[in-house]
Amino acid sequence: FRTVEPLEYYRRFLKENCRPDGRELGEFRATTVNIGKSCCSITTADGSALVKLGNTTVICGVKAELAAPAADSANKGYIVPNVELPSLCSTRFRSGPPGEEAQAASQFIADVIENSQIIAREDLCIANGKLAWVLYCDIICLDYDGNILDASAFALLAALKNVQLPSVTINEETGLSEVNLKQKNPLIIRKHPVATSFAIFDDTLLIVDPTAEEEDLATGTVTIVTDDEGRLCSVHKPGGSPLTGAKLQDCITRAITRHKEVKKLIDKVIKSIKPK
Known about the structure:
Elements: H1 6-15, E1 31-35, E2 47-53, E3 56-67, E4 78-84, H2 100-116, E5 125-127, E6 131-143, H3 148-160, E7 164-170, E8 177-186, E9 194-201, E10 205-208, H4 212-217, E11 220-226, E12 232-236, H5 245-273
Parallel strand pairs: 4-6
Antiparallel strand pairs: 1-2, 2-3, 3-6, 5-6, 7-8, 9-10, 9-11, 11-12
Helix pairs in contact: 2-3
């Protein structure tokens, strides 16, 4: 029945306010995060994190490089995000150049960075007009089972909090940069944006943290991004069923609660890996 009439199969569960995997409509899948060397052996990354949201598994590595600032923003560095959905993570993706979903996810992450001001780009400037940091944030999906946006945003935040940048100065006499690898400083994280995604069923019913199957059956999706103060950073709604003001407010309220849960989880993991 699930194979022949998947939507009808789901509706029978949704009528009882539950889902085939046993979750309530507003319940997230088990969420875990591992940060830094405890998560993965990316020895070349300056910060890394691995996030699991149910079966969806995402890894983020941040690589820092030095570059000259752009002429029109001489006092700012760069943050360059990229989301990859390789064929190994799901049969729905093909090898080759980034598909539509990967491009949309990369743009979503770029918007989250810009709208939330997670890092002030001025903080990445080393010498005005001469030298700045470029942060390449590569987010790779290892196992895809829906809700890639929440997992990607979570992995990015956790990896950025793990970044340690060496001290860099410019030699007055030679004009060359000098890097001190023994003296490292963490990034200044100004905001903690957290994404919370919902699938819309039959134009009215909202379920949180959809699986890949639920996303395929839904009549629309919406992702709410909030920060530490409960401020709305962005609403990402790629078409589909419209939402009433009241429904959107429900989503925002649930997103604020989710933000607290995620922030608590990150803080707990970071505390556990700090040297005693």
